[in-house]
């Protein structure tokens, strides 16, 4: 408990929270939220055990699929290094998500939010490189620089001005929709010639659909599973499917780069 930052004051808040919940339920009132969050039953030092474990499993799925990708795709594939970078950015995000749900602090909360935004932006960059950058690398480099500048401004505002949850949500929804429509447009355009892009279609549609779980707001089932935890659990197989698409596409590009096939 001490190693993860729990103090006597935190322990007092936790015990008082459950005393309050008990009184509310006993008198027939709805379960209250505390500082905008539902009460969770702590397991050992894990503040939100289901979300923490699901985040860890998402990270593990990313790591396993990264290992398989590296084992099956040679570095000479045009998208190899961009895909590897995306994998490490994703692993970093799931690492901070696990820490945040294990023990919520100002640092772990901000890192969880910032790293989640970074994954979406890197997915946009990945899409840019795949759709335009292979033929126009200068454009991809310039666009990548713009995304880094946007991320820096985004993080600076939330860190130095004020941490605006509404703005952060709106920004992530905006870049998430850009990511969705860009990938979806390219997949639809190439689905007849490249059947494996259907995996990507399923991934982007599933991610957008599963994100709607965040709109649900209900007390945690068994004081462990809330909508956010269920969302994290649901994204585990999506990681596997997306890396399967990246592997298929990278191997296709490897053949195309050797002159056997045409790059699109």
Automatic annotation (TrEMBL):
Main location: membrane
Gene Ontology BP annotations: GPI anchor biosynthetic process
Positions of transmembrane segments: 50-67, 79-99, 111-132, 139-159, 165-184, 196-216, 222-246
Keywords: Golgi apparatus, GPI-anchor biosynthesis, Membrane, Signal, Transmembrane, Transmembrane helix
Compartment(s): Endomembrane system; Golgi apparatus membrane
Molecular functions (GO terms): hydrolase activity, acting on ester bonds
A Pfam family: Per1
Alphabetical list of InterPro entries matching this protein: Per1-like
Membrane topology: Multi-pass membrane protein
GO cellular component: endoplasmic reticulum membrane; Golgi membrane
Function: Involved in the fatty acid remodeling steps of GPI-anchor maturation where the unsaturated acyl chain at sn-2 of inositol phosphate is replaced by a saturated stearoyl chain. May catalyze the first step of the fatty acid remodeling, by removing the unsaturated acyl chain at sn-2 of inositol phosphate, generating a lyso-GPI intermediate. The fatty acid remodeling steps is critical for the integration of GPI-APs into lipid rafts.
Family label: Belongs to the PGAP3 family.
Protein's name in the database: Post-GPI attachment to proteins factor 3
